[in-house]
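agent> Task received from the user: take the single chain below, predict its 3D structure, and emit structure tokens. No templates, no multimer pairing.
agent> Plan: (1) validate residues, (2) run structure prediction, (3) serialize to tokens, (4) report one or two observations.
agent> Step 1 OK, no nonstandard residues flagged.
tool_call: predict_structure(input=
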Amino acid sequence: MSLEVEPGSITGLIGPNGAGKSTLFNIVAGLIRPDHGRVYLDNRDITGHPPYQLFHQGLVRTFQIPHELARMTVRENLMVVPPGQTGENLLASWFRWGRVRRQEASVREQAEEVLDFLSIRHLADERAANLSGGQKKLLDLGRTMMTEARAVLLDEPGAGVNRTLLGRITDAIQRLNRERGYTFCLIEHDMDLIARLCDPVHVMANGAVIASGQMSEIRQNEEVREAYLGGAAAREGEAQ
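)
tool_result: status=success, residues=240
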């Protein structure tokens, strides 16, 4: 398969369960090394680079199930993200405490801006473990904002989220794309969310892209319908 995500786009990736969407994300994000083929970011070969290297190159991935630091507050979850903080070095924290304090103040200010952007300031001092699923998805978006992210892979940002919080997540993605130039590629099963956010949309089935285009075109594609309905029919037959 071959797939291109244009800079500045919000690109959707849909398909039935087992199509290979999350596996593709894991390959791009460096969690799985591909057997064949290459992965490029801004025309640079990043195939097989580990996630921590890709993080420094501006590629960030979120997961369907958020991975928050449960015992830390929302604000602390944001503040630990920026790399290369002086206070991470034990000797520097003893002998360069002035610089540590200045840098921490700067990171805190950035975190406060993120809290305001996502309208979650009221949760700043709440332990992340106590957040709802939708609030954790907002925190995931907030953590990407604490990086120099250029490309963000979102794995089912709408999964298990109530409609009110889903609207806030959708608005945040659109604003980050429009106002800050973030490039998004997202996996999602909510077709209404895909239709609202994404252009273009790529459809995967059996490890391959079978259709690409606007959502209005995708809905009319017979091969796409067969991929979804065929999968559902097969599962129904197994159940019987």
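agent> Step 4: summary for the user.
The longest strand covers residues 208-213.
agent> Done.
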